Amino acid sequence: MNKLKTTKRVLGGALLAAVVTVVGVPTQAFADVGGNEDASGSAMFVDFLFLRPLGLVATVIGTATFVVTSPFSALGGNIRGAGATLVVEPVKYTFLRPLGDI
Fold it and tell me: What is the pTM of this model?
């Protein structure tokens, strides 16, 4: 029973860290988003149907990986780089890129 409580606490802490990481990402990192008037309909279709869902999966997996590896990244002194690569880049690709900009 005690092991179950410890597991719940660890998972709760990891979930809290993931939420704080995603919510706490500065919005200035996303300031360079522009429009894409040259995208074709087929590029938009492929982007919406295939690439955005894959980006969402990459965002979830990257965030989970960041949460798990963040203690080691902190010890190595590269937590900002890990967060940028594992969380910020997939979020930009999935949610902030203009539709059809492949």
Answer: 0.60
